[in-house]
Each structure stands twice: as structure tokens, then as C-alpha cells.
Design a protein that fits this description.
Layout lengths: L2 E8 L3 H15 L3 E5 L4 H7 L5 H8 L3 E6 L9 H13 L4 E8 L8 E8 L9 E4 L7 E4 L5 H17 L4 E6 L5 H15 L6 E6 H10 L6 E4 L1 H13 L8 E5 L7 E5 L16 H13 L3 H13 L7 H11 L1
Parallel strand pairs: 1-2, 1-3, 3-12, 5-10, 8-9, 8-10
Antiparallel strand pairs: 4-5, 4-11, 6-7, 11-12
Helix pairs in contact: 1-9, 1-11, 5-6, 7-8, 9-10, 10-11
The structure holds 3-isopropylmalic acid and manganese (II) ion.
3-isopropylmalic acid binds next to helix 4.
């Protein structure tokens, strides 16, 4: 079967790292048709559009999407984040953001091997709220957090199923139940109830502030972390910083129900300051492509890519040098 893969290079280093990821995909021999989209800051600045309806309709028909990064100087904050990235997460119902972190022991810690399962369609990302009397001394701004039993439970179930497949079978809920008492209570009860169906998975709970300390001082205590959208956003930048840096952090925005394509992207942004210099590490994009292969059922190819990345650990060079080395080893 030939997979129909949407390619959104985006801006800055996005197209550079995606080019290396597709180079590696080509090397696997997996049959796919790239469907290229011109989306991101450059398109917005040129045409004034962020996600045209015809592009979204075409994306819905695909098997998966590989995205580099979007964001360009001159584009106001929120335009691309809400208009493109979050629009895709919400519209395609990508309700799990699966972010793995792995690193050998280093001076920073005794090694990292964890996955953050971040709820990806609700919380404070849902866009609830608004502004009144903007720009006046009486301005009011509210930004609520939306937590539904349905949304929390499907994410929690995914995390338990993942934990069950891993060696340690351990799941930590990270939240702030001592302050966010309404949402925290919903999350905590949901985890407790679903845990009843997963006797083989051990569970723990950490407040998000404490989790920040543990992630730095003793990340080895984590196996699977399940958490709210905003906490997951922040924790995954921290987790990347203690496990090889943002150039290694991959992510899968998943629709596990498979009612549409899932989207795979490095956690990093478009880094306009290093665009064109060859300094970008394409590994995060390449590992994201491996996650895509795995989700598409191409487990063997995915394993070869992961293995090739591991064997290219020592490669130093430009973005394309690293991509070439990984592709060659695939
Ligand atoms: C991420 C990013 C996005 C997020 C932004 C760019 C909307 O930081 O994928 O972690 O906040 O989720
Ligand atoms: Mn982020």
C-alpha cells in the first residue's frame, strides 16, 4: 500500500529538517506519495491565508502528515499557532500528543526513558474566554480551561495502554490538583477509575511544580507521564532539555481512533536565527518520521530508522550531513 503523506515544511529550519526526514523515509523503501503543502508564515505574509479550506480538506484525505515548523518574523503571535497548528490538532481530533524522551546516563542525570502523553485538544488550549474593554484601564481577559470527561478519559486510556506495553508499566499523572481543584479532580478520578482496568500498571501522582524538580534531578523515576495540554507543553520542553536537547525531541499528534490522519512533527520551532546555516539537528524530525512509520504499521522500517539514528549518535556536521548519515545506515 502506498501511503499518502502530507508534507508541510513550513518556515525557517522546518523545510530543512523535513528534507532530511523525507531523505530517510526514501531510504527505507516504504512506498509513499508526498503531498506537499505551502503553509506557514511565508505563505501568510505573501497571501494573507493560514489554512485555506481546500488545503484542510485535502489534508483530511491523507494517511499522515509530516510537519517541520512554522513561524516567521513579522507574523503576530497566535496567527499560525491557533490558525494552523492548533486548527489541525482540533480539526483532525489529534487528541494525544505523544512525546518520547530517551538519553543515556550523562553528567545531567542517570538516563532518561520516558514518554509524555499530553492531552492535545482541550485544557487552556481550547480557546475558551475572551476580552472586554480591550486597551482600557477596565480591560478584562479570561482564558478558561476546558476539561471533559470524554476528552480526559480517552487520553488517559491511551496512556495506560502505552504503559502496559512498556517494561516498567508505570504511569504518573501530573497535574495541580491542590489548586486547579475542578479540573484536577476530574483528571484524578478518571485516572483512578481507568486504573481499575489496568491492574498490571502501577500509578503515581505528582504536582506539576514538583515534577519539574524531579525531571531535572531524577528523571529516571518516570516511565509514562499523562498530563493536561498546557502542563504537557511546558514539561516536554523541560524533558527535552534534560535528554539531549530540543534537536532530539520528536512528537506524534495522534488520532488513535484513526478517524483521520495523524500529524508528526519535531517539538522545536522554526528557529529563524539559524535557518540556512546548516546548524539545525534533523534528528527530531527524523525520529518523528519513524513514529509516523510505526503508526502507519511500518514497524520494521520504523525500527531501522530508530536504529540508524542511534548509530549516528557520533555524527557531527551540517543538517544534511546528519540526514545523509542516517539515510545511509537505514
Ligand atoms: C508545541 C508548541 C505549540 C504548543 C505551539 C507552537 C502552538 O509549543 O508543539 O509544543 O504550544 O503546543
Ligand atoms: Mn511547546
Amino acid at each position: 500500500m502506498t501511503h499518502q503523506i502530507g508534507i508541510i515544511g513550513g518556515d525557517g529550519i522546518g523545510p530543512e529538517v523535513v528534507a532530511e526526514a523525507t531523505k530517510v523515509l526514501d531510504a527505507t523503501g516504504v512506498a509513499y506519495t508526498p503531498v506537499v503543502f505551502d503553509l506557514g508564515g511565508a505563505r501568510y505574509l505573501r497571501d494573507g491565508v493560514v489554512l485555506p479550506a481546500e488545503d484542510l480538506a485535502a489534508i483530511r484525505e491523507l494517511d499522515a502528515v509530516l510537519l517541520g515548523a512554522v513561524g516567521a518574523p513579522g507574523v503576530p503571535p497566535g496567527v499560525l499557532e491557533r490558525g494552523l497548528l492548533l486548527a489541525l490538532r482540533f480539526d483532525l481530533d489529534l487528541y494525544v500528543n505523544h512525546r518520547p524522551f530517551a538519553a543515556p546516563p550523562s553528567p545531567l542525570n542517570d538516563g532518561v526513558d520516558l514518554v509524555v502523553v499530553r492531552e492535545n485538544t482541550e485544557g487552556s488550549y481550547a480557546g475558551e474566554g475572551g476580552v472586554l474593554r480591550r486597551g482600557t484601564p477596565h480591560e478584562v481577559a479570561t482564558q478558561g480551561s476546558v476539561n471533559t470527561r470524554f476528552g480526559v478519559e480517552r487520553c488517559v486510556r491511551y496512556a495506560f495502554e502505552l504503559a502496559r506495553r512498556r517494561d516498567r508499566r508505570h504511569l504518573t499523572l501530573v497535574h495541580k490538583t491542590n489548586v486547579l481543584t475542578f479540573a484536577g479532580d476530574l483528571w484524578e478520578r478518571t485516572v483512578t477509575e481507568v486504573a481499575g482496568e489496568f491492574d498490571d500498571v502501577e500509578t503515581a501522582y505528582h504536582h506539576v511544580d514538583a515534577a519539574c524538580i524531579y525531571l531535572v534531578q531524577d528523571p529516571g523515576r518516570y516511565d509514562v507521564i499523562v498530563t493536561d495540554n498546557l502542563f504537557g507543553d511546558i514539561l516536554t520542553d523541560l524533558a527535552s532539555a534534560v535528554s539531549g536537547g530540543i534537536g532530539r525531541a520528536a512528537s506524534a499528534n495522534l488520532n488513535p481512533a484513526r478517524t483521520g490522519p495523524s500529524l508528526f512533527e519535531p517539538v522545536h520551532g522554526s528557529a529563524p536565527d539559524i535557518a540556512g546555516t546548516g546548524a539545525a539537528d534533523p534528528r527530531a524530525a527524523i525520529i518523528s518520521a519513524a513514529m509516523m512509520l510505526e503508526f502507519l504499521g511500518e514497524e520494521d522500517a520504523a525500527a531501522r530508522v530508530r536504529d540508524a539514528v542511534a548509530k549516528s549518535e557520533d555524527v557531527v556536521g551540517t543538517t544534511s550531513d546528519v540526514g545523509d548519515a542516517v539515510a545511509e545506515r537505514v
